Amino acid sequence: MTGIIADAFILACRDELESPKPGNVHVYAAGHGMTVAQFETSAAAAAVPLCEPGARVGARIRGAIEATVRAVGTNTNLGIVLLCAPLAAAAERKVPDLRESVIQVLDGLDVADAADAFAAIVQASPAGLGRAGRHDVFAPPQVTLKEAMAEAAGRDRVARQYATGFADVFEVGMPLHAAASARWVDSKSATLAVYLGFLSRFPDSHILRKYGAACAAEVCRSALKFDALLQEAPDPAAVVGELLAWDADLKARRINPGTTADLTVATSFAVRLQSCLAVCVH
């Protein structure tokens, strides 16, 4: 199962890179000083520790970030790793219902998981990382990783997943992916539908941290327009030109919906894992 989980993770990362996600790095255009090659290298490097059999979630996170930094020398995937580590641990349990298993994994997190995750966050040093009054990542944790994430859930969409049993992934992302997959055969269109679906529904945490609520709301409004264009298009290829024009504008303004991209990878990973479990368990 370990190899299957690692393959699913790498493919999920690839799904996201192949989609023309406005403001984010993809095969159509680099951005924010990063390239597709760096993300591909990061995915391959992170996959081994992230999918280590029997490893604690915190150890998976710390190992994946250490491997990423060794491989590319920068933070390309902190949000992805934070989201995908519990999913990988859950899939290992071979419970048919992936979300049920994720909830069990989250409920089993401890203070050591928090210590490892905090160390990984500090090492990755994401843009906009500040100091917190409680459960600051620069201080030794006093609570479990789930409890620490719950404290940050109101300001960070990645943290919110730990507090809600990955509600956005299972209740928003996966239905969006299923609907798009039923309509279009190519995975990049389903990935794009998930990305625009998230971006039009929620202010992106990365944008909020760097540029504030007004900018995040503006991006949401634009995403709503592009999401409608995609849904109305008989062929997603027809809207790629407009998407790439918006992509260029966002990148010129250094606006990167990074959290939305992280949630998109997690959704693709969850879809692939649930499919694998349906085969492996039965």
Please characterize this protein's 3D structure:
This protein is mainly alpha-helical and 282 residues long. It has a single domain, classed as Orthogonal Bundle (Triphosphoribosyl-dephospho-CoA protein), CATH 1.10.4200.10. The protein has helices spanning 2-17, 36-50, 57-72, 78-92, 98-107, 111-124, 145-152, 157-164, 167-183, 187-201, 205-211, 213-232, 240-252, 258-280. Helix 9 packs across helix 14 (258-280) and helix 10 (187-201) crosses helix 14. The radius of gyration is 18 Å and the shape is globular.
List the helices and strands and how they pair.
Blueprint: H1 2-17, H2 36-50, H3 57-72, H4 78-92, H5 98-107, H6 111-124, H7 145-152, H8 157-164, H9 167-183, H10 187-201, H11 205-211, H12 213-232, H13 240-252, H14 258-280
Structural class assignment? mainly alpha
Flag low-confidence runs: 128-133
Give the overall shape.
globular
Q: What share of residues is helical?
A: 55-70%
* Radius of gyration, taken over Cα atoms and rounded to an integer in Å: 18 Å
* Helix-strand pattern: HHHHHHHHHHHHHH
Measured by DSSP, the beta-strand proportion falls in under 5%
By DSSP, the count of extended strands is: 0
Work out the count of structural domains. 1
Report the top-level CATH class.
Mainly Alpha
The CATH level-2 architecture is identified as Orthogonal Bundle
CATH superfamily descriptor: Triphosphoribosyl-dephospho-CoA protein
CATH topology: Triphosphoribosyl-dephospho-CoA protein
Query: Distance between the terminal alpha carbons, to the nearest Å?
Result: 14 Å
Number of helices: 14
Taking the sheet with the most strands, its summary is: none
Indicate the mean pLDDT. Answer: 93
